[in-house]
Amino acid sequence: MKISKNPFELAPAINNSRNLILEQVMPLLYGVILAAAVWILWRGHHAPGGGFIGGLTALAATAAQAIVFGVPSALRRMPLGPMPLAVTGVALALCSGLPATWFGHPYLTHLWFDVPLGFTQLPLSTVLLFDIGVFCAVWGTLSGYIFALLRGSDATSPGEQS
Amino acid sequence: MQATDLKPHAAKARYLSVALPPLAGFLLLIWGLIHHPLPWQGSLDWAPSLGLTFAVYVDGLSAQFLALITGIGALVFLYATGYLAGEPRQGRLFLILTVFMLAMIGVVIADHLLLLFLFWELTSLTSFLLVGFYHENEQSRTSARQALLVTMSGGLALLAAILLLGEISGGYSLQALIAQGPTLADDPRLPAALILLLVGCFTKSAQFPFHFWLPNAMTAPTPVSAYLHSATMVKLGIYLLARLDPALNHLLLWESALMSIGTLTAVWGAVLALRERDLKRILAWSTVSALGTLTLLIGLPNPGAGLAVAAFLFAHALYKAPLFMVAGNIDHATGTRVIDHLMGLHRAMPWTAMAAILAGLSMAGLPLSFGFVAKDLISVAKADAEVLTVVSYATLFVNAIAAAVAGIATLRVFGGPPRWPRGEAHEVSWRMALPPLLIALVAIEFEFLPGVADPLLGAAAIAIAPSLGVIRDIDASYPSGKVITATEITLLVGLILFLIWDWLHGLLQRIHWLDRIGPTACYELLLKQLTRVAAWQTGLLQRGRLAGYLSWTLTGLLALAIGASFAMHQASEPGWGGLLDWSTLVFADWPAQHWAWLTAAVLMIAGAAASMVLRHRMALLMASGLVGYGSAVLFLFTGAPDLAFTQFAVETALVVVAAALLPHYGAPPVLSNEPVLRNALLALASGAGVLLLLVHLFALPADAQLATWFGEASLPLAHGRNVVNVIIVDFRALDTLGEITVVMFSLLAALPLLGALARSVKREG
Questions:
Q1: Phi/psi of residue B365, nearest 5 degrees
Q2: Does the first or last residue of chain A, that is N or C, have fewer Cβ atoms within 10 Å of its Cβ?
Q3: Cα B213 vs. chain centroid, distance in angstroms?
């Protein structure tokens, strides 16, 4: 492999040597980013956020994991794997519109329920199901792209745990 | 296991159950016809907001087709289990055949024109798969593509016709359209609709000049030919013509087109049958000829023709399907279908021979057969209609050829001293011998027990010609001397043609220019030119270089921007004055967040400028990331936090992933021959174009109706304060569903490409 002598080239740092700081931080960071992603998904109905942005944020966790520890490691930490996750997402979104037809409303009319928790009310809806579907579709598809690209570059990092 | 595969006739009885669905359908139909008077109708709302209903209307004509589809279908399925015994892919064939059958049923029972179109196209698609079933054979692929292109182009014409008819009549219900009838003629759009409709029907039913696909489709397995290309699919065009005839038969254009094209097709198909040596292709050409006769009959103005159409439709299906099966049996037993090599098969294949003779009787129109009744009704219809003499002679000729073809398929192949290429010929299994015999027997039985067929044919005839009134008894008219004479003449001419068949064949074979002109040659030429144009424009537009794609995109953007600006300007004040009025872009006073805006602008300009100067990939990546962050900042301070959020996330992910990837793809290629000046000019021009567009967009009065509505309705209707998200997941959820589906499928399409990229990188590395 050709390695440029240009000082801008970051390649050796990422590829040919282990990045100890990232390797130490990553396990914790992965969980934090993922939690943030879920939080963004949850708040999305009232504040900036939602399934699409949440999915992109979750993708950041997966991408970082793949870059630091390699694709197989990122695959293990992901639910289902890219394509099945994307398909599940689309299926969830498709199904979220069905309950309305049971009650005689047009397809994709969203329904709301309030679940009493004692101290407060938990608002649940088919909208949430739809948004989770969007989340999964975006997360799954884009990580599929990233895995394919990283695999293509033969970027199995030396720090990969197996 | 291996041994059974080598001996197809010994193969275990598999897939016998596939014949059950059509059989059940047939029995259900019979039960329904006995217990419930026609018409049956019903409808189911499908998408009421779009006016789409699953409307069903079954009258005599539909019932007749249903009987053909399910009755002949059951026997064809049975036949196919024998014909394809040992074929590893027969499961696939039965699946497609079943889908085809359902689509056929859909077409003939649909009352909604768009529903009809949907099923119509489904039959074309399944027909493509069935014709190309032996796809390892090139001839088979070519024929399948030809059938698809011809019938699907016709389908497009039909769609246009349906939309026009829908506009004219104000609805898509077939029955409503027919009921409007003569009042349609006042509309000036009717001729266009009629021509498109005729093209659609003519392509499906192989009328001149679209007839050539049908004989070529004989590369399909024989059960498919017997089912699709004789009994059902090719009659769909006839079905629709007959269905709409009551509404349109007072129009001169309709009548003259049907009569002229029908006659031409009938004669031409009959002549071309003489040029063939392959039994199956001979039968296919005679099918083209019969379809022409049907078209001609629909075009006849008098109501009696309706009865003739119904009878001939039935008779043709009942003799042609068995004859195709006979051809398949001969092929199976002897390994050839070329008539020169076949003689005297009656000893080796007695049951097949009997089926052939019974079907042949009907095809030749001999007494004691249903074909005779049909021919008789055709003669009566034509006598009533006072048709042109030339049409009369044409039918005489066509009938004579049909009789000769019947002679070829029976006397020539089965009679005389035994002669065939293989050492031993044997009778085929019962599953292949029984179906043709049964169908042929039904035809004979109808002649002796007309009471069975009369009600159905009568109902069908009334559907085609409502003014027919009281149905005449079908067998009442054959003692008339005129018909007997016509039959005698036809048979005599047919006999002569049969005897001089080889001489005629040689004569026609020598006329080579027939191959060079005509519709087939036109089709070939069109196909060749199409691929040439496609290659030329692909080479022009897609040079395989990102810079090339970008310059086309920018050129398009420029043209669009200038065109749109000009159109907007013309709409507000005609003339050239004030085309470049910049005042709309000037703010009277600075907005509150102008510092943030300025920062964003500086970020973006710096990023863009840097990317022009820098040469290193990683630096270029950073510079382009700067442009993305700049626009995210801009979104953040113009009231679009969601968009800004997304932009930040996307930009970061892109830069990080690209940074991890870039080193693996080697050094950037040196671009020495890039037209720098041209690219720069194009970039400047497209920037200016967008600016011009903005000037005019800002001059438009702002319409805040939608924004206000969404803002107000978001919380009460959708329980959410984030309007953007509410729009995405609730108000326009269907759009989002489409988008995430596209996103998912994009991965499916990209994976193989990325895999190929990975392999090529590995090879180079």
A1: 75, 30
A2: C
A3: 13
Helix (H) or strand (E) holding B40: strand B40-47
Q: How far is CA B466 from the centre of its chain?
A: 30
Q: Which of A64-78, A101-115, B366-380, B567-581 has the lowest mean pLDDT?
A: B567-581
Q: Encode pLDDT of B98-124 as tens digits.
A: 999 999 999 999 999 999 999 999 999
pLDDT digits (tens, 9 = 90+) for B56-81: 899 888 998 999 999 999 999 999 88
Q: What is the mean pLDDT of residues B329-339?
A: 83
Distance between CA atoms of residues B314 and B371, nearest Å: 9
B667 CB neighbours in chain A (<8 A) are: 2, 4
Beta bridge partners of A112: A125
Residue of chain A nearest B731, judged by CA positions: A109
Cα maximum dimension of chain A = 68
Residue A50 lies inside a defined structural domain of this protein: yes
Q: Spell out which residues of chain B touch residue A146, defining contact as CB-CB under 8 Å.
A: 657
Chain B window 631-670: which residues touch A at a Cβ cutoff of 8 Å? Answer: 641-642, 645-646, 649-650, 652-653, 656-657, 659-667
SS3 call for B38: coil
In chain B, where are the structural domains located? 1-248, 259-509, 512-542, 703-765
Interchain contact, B660 vs A137, CB within 8 Å: no
pLDDT of the residue at B202: 93
- Please check whether residue A88 lies inside any domain of the structure: yes
Helix (H, G, I), strand (E, B) or coil at B722: coil
Contacts of B646 in chain A (CB under 8 A): 52-53, 56
* d(C-alpha B414, C-alpha B419), whole Å: 10
Q: Tell me, yes or no, whether A129 lies in a domain.
A: yes
Nearest Cβ partner for B740 among A44, A82, A93: A93
Structural domain boundaries, residue A147 = 17-152
As for how many domains chain A has, the answer is: 1
For residues B254 and B245, give the distance between their C-alpha atoms in angstroms, rounded to a whole number: 9
For chains A and B, what is the number of CB pairs under 8 angstroms? 177
Three-state SS across A83-118? HHHHHHHHHHHHHHCHHHHHCCCCCCCCCEEEEECC
Nearest to A153 among B642, B656, B661 (CB): B661
Q: Is residue A3 part of a domain?
A: no
Cα separation of B225 and B323, whole Å? 10
Inform me whether the pLDDT recorded for A45 exceeds 50: yes
Q: What is the pLDDT of residues B635-651, one digit of tens each?
A: 888 878 888 888 888 88
Judged by CB atoms closer than 8 Å, whether chains meet at B659 and A57 is answered as no
Q: What amino acid is encoded at B294 in this protein?
A: L
Stated as kind and residue range, the H or E segment containing B662 is none
Q: Which residues of A touch B660 (CB under 8 A)?
A: 14, 67, 150, 153, 155
Return the exposure string of B113-147: e unless at least 16 CB atoms fall within 10 Å of the residue's CB, then b: bbbbbebbbbbbbbbbbbbbbeeeeeebeebbbbb
Q: What's the CA gap between A81 and B458, in Å, rounded?
A: 63
Residue B763 pLDDT level (bands cut at 50, 70, 90): low
The whole-angstrom separation of Cα B403 and Cα B267 is 14
Which residue out of A41, A108, A136, A150 would a mutagenesis test of the B interface target, given it has the greatest number of B Cβ atoms within 10 Å?
Answer: A108
Chain B residues 617-636 with a CB less than 8 Å from chain A: 618-619
> Which structure tokens are listed for B249?
């038969």
How many whole angstroms separate alpha carbon B539 and alpha carbon B764? 26
pTM: 0.73
Enter the tokens of residue B750.
Answer: 């990209």
Whether B380 shows a pLDDT value over 80: the answer reads: no
Give just the sign of the alpha carbon dihedral B163, B165, B167, B170.
negative
Reduced DSSP (H G I as helix, E B as strand, rest coil) percent helix, strand, coil of chain A, to 5: 65, 5, 30
